[in-house]
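Possible regression after last week's pipeline update?

I re-ran a chain I had predicted before the update to compare outputs. Posting the input and the new output here so someone can diff against the archived version. Not blocking, just want to make sure nothing changed silently.
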Amino acid sequence: MREVAGYLPHIGEEEFERKILRFQDLEVEIPLLTKEQMNKVIETVKRESAEIVKSLTVSEIVNIIDQAIDRLLDRSSTYRQKAEKLLPIVTGYDEEMIRLGLTSYLKSFRKHELQRFLVEDLGNPLLLDDFQPRVKGGFSKAVGPELITHVWAGNVPALPLWSFISGLLVKAGNIGKVSSAEPLFAGWFAHLLVEVEPRLANCFAVVWWKGGDEEREKSLFEQSDLVVGYGGNQSLQSLQSRIPMTTRFLSFGHKVSFGIVSNKTLDPQKTWRTAHQAVLDVIRYDQQGCYSPHLFYVQNGGRVSPREFARYLATELDNFKKRYPRRTLSMEESTSLASWRQKEEMSLFSHRDKEVLGNVTNDWSVVFEEGDTNFIPSPLNRVIRVISFEKIEDILPSIKPYRSFLQTVGIASTPKELFQWAEVLGSIGVTRVTALGNMTSPEAGWHHDGRFNILDLINMVDIESSAELDSERFAPYVD
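New output (post-update):
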């Protein structure tokens, strides 16, 4: 079985080198451009996007994206069926998890969500179309880059949509590099956009090259106004070193997230649902996302103890493994996980207030610890730690050293605690607080790692009131 990945604008009758990426019984064919071909793609995308995309209103762009997303949400559509069939092969994730995950994710990009997305950052989306009056006087307009290059990671299916859609909304030309781990979805989306609006055919590209291929990167980075990079911190640092000083770089690196459960929510009648929601965050893409929890802090003093809560989690993880089995791990991952599990079990001899729960096939693990509030990142792949605590001030010192890596916290608490805890967690670096069960599904318009999706891509052009007033002296209607 073979699938062609990527998307290229028309640059004449060119013969492209073809790279084959193999995934079980699936071969993914993707063009590998020479430096000269890349330059033709860059020139075409810049020219056509300046002429076509910038002539569209932001409302028209939203409608085009909405129609494409509607097709992807329709399970009878060719693209949706292809995604449900091929993404499990490429990523190793369970078919049903892919199906549900895609639906939840894609709903964030429907028309009304995109409108919320724009209003959240700009207030007035018409700033992207024309000069708009400012309260203090004068006028302003939001201007997107001529060319954005996106370097995408492949740990979560369809991840490229965030930055690709943001780039379209600011009317930029867009060239995206897909990951070898998931090279398909961005190209499908590009083809679908062109089916919805054929005028966009030469306004973007989805390409591939092996990471660190400086010859192919150099020309693209030098001609880009902005590079948006996703991946591990080490790879992003290496990427930044290869980007010219004149090209702006936005990086989205490795982050860690966790959950926190108040004792006021630990009621026997409510705890099962809380644990159920928490486990949903653990199993979705096997904790591979930045927003996936590494551990749960559970407060002492409830009618259900933290140790009992850990057992609730274990029961739910065991139930879910039947419906949504974990992806098949590589030999390296399996060895690492077995080593971690053995180390944890050996530590039981010296830690009486500790418990390691799991099944014989190591499909999941829950480690309960009492009194030790240290923040220890999970080895992932459905491994979660439960740590008991008395009051939130007790856990802050162990979390604070991870300030630059913190992102999402899933909370089960009373309304009063929600705001009190969000205040102190925000002060040590947390940028997103959500309900358990929603950690892996950010709302439209969320501030990614505490930043803006649209504002970070644009420049504002101001016409000051003095220029407007002075121009009146030269108007043809002046007496």
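Follow-up from reviewer: compared with the archived run. The longest strand covers residues 17-23. Marking as no regression found.
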